[in-house]
Amino acid sequence: MKSVFSFTRLFFTLSFKSFLHPKGQQPYTMCFRVKFYPQEPIKIREELTRYLLYLQLKRDLYHGRLLCPFADAAYLGACIVQAELGDYDADEHPADYISDFKLFPKQSLKLERKIMEIHQNELRGQSPALAELNLLQRAHTLDTYGVDPHPCKDFTGTTAFLGFTARGFMVFQGNKRIHLLKWADVSKFKFEGKTFYVIGVQREKKLVLTFHTSTPAACKHLWKCGVENQAFYKCAKSSQIKTVSSSSIFFKGTRFRYSGRVAKEVIEASSKIQRDPPVVHRSQLGQSRSYNSLSHKQLIMNMEPLLPALSSTKEHRDTSLGEEESAITGTGAEVERREQEVEEGEEMGSLTISDMAYSPCASMLPTPVEEGQGGVDFLFQSPGRLLKELHADPEMQAELQAERERELAREALRQSLCSPSSGRQQLGACIRSAARLVAAATVILLILLPLLLKT
């Protein structure tokens, strides 16, 4: 499985003590996730590795994490259908065969028709491996390819999403990328309490970006993600990776070092693999099975049950419109009017990152919370009781307590440095210590000098 892990990681971010919690319900489900996305999927040699990356990107599309304009969404959806259903067959596939499959969080009638058009006309004859490769090639050109969006607030209080990719550090607001800082221009990541700092260089000038998370634990997790992504994509060798501190040299901050191979080493190791290609076991959704036997769960197999991404206000309106469409059984004029409304709504904008909230300790397995649990604003406005429940793990409580103690120490030091009387006292103590040292040296010289003269 060496090649499989070239661009993927099977990782368990929770300790068994916290993962196998007594309150948990068996059986436990372990999930496979891509952690570092390859910058150029075409360089992945083995088909099995490409298939695993394809599964992750399909999940990202479903959750609204991989944003794409209408044309790209239609093409990616058609690639998924071609890879898992094969060529279009009029005898097996009814006129609306796409409508039973949920590929996107916002899936309109116009989008489904475009997917069917591409699937029937442009992708015919493509094997599952080729269709998956075409999806990877198109997906890696999108801004949000490989982004695990971390919700936060900028200095104005506006909700923003931070992401780390092979290209660098990105900031999104809605469906717009407002910042891209390439890894070569990123100097350091730092955090203090709930404040996250990105220090870099832009146009030959020092740049400091400041963001605020909901809890210190979320900020620490964001910092660790930034450090390990910077090391993975920026360093040429793993031996160049250094241990970094979250704070300045005057305070004891969190220390962290990414351990593992970097991107360049992974590519070099993959090119040296000499073995027979492993067998890829895909979901059996080929032409040999009738359409009626296909189900939504079968289409997204090899992935745990998915939750739709939380919708923004605009998405709620579009979703409601789509539900009304399916319920309408009126005249042809009414259907035509509804279709026109859908097209107008689709032209208003592309898919957006929803206000999704993550557990800071489990963002490595990122799944948006249910709508009833609230979004980013709810996370920032949660009362202390809810935050305490969110971080009920003893290790997390110890980290929070240590962070509070460090904050108190910093505050005490700031007050002592700013107080004039305290400064005078410290200066007086230093003078007295120096005087005592001089007096002791003088006494020693007076005792030793006569002895030296006699000899």
UniProtKB/TrEMBL annotation:
CDD domains: FERM_B-lobe. It holds the Pfam family FERM_M. GO terms for molecular function: cytoskeletal protein binding. GO terms for cellular component: cytoskeleton. Residues 312-351 are annotated as: Disordered. One of its GO terms (biological process) is actomyosin structure organization. Gene3D superfamilies: 1.20.80.10, Pleckstrin-homology domain (PH domain)/Phosphotyrosine-binding domain (PTB). It comes from the Eukaryota. Keywords: Membrane, Transmembrane, Transmembrane helix. Residues 1-237 form the FERM domain. Signal peptide: none annotated. The chain crosses the membrane at residues 434-453. PANTHER family: 4.1 G PROTEIN, FERM DOMAIN-CONTAINING PROTEIN 3. This is FERM domain-containing protein. The gene is FRMD3.
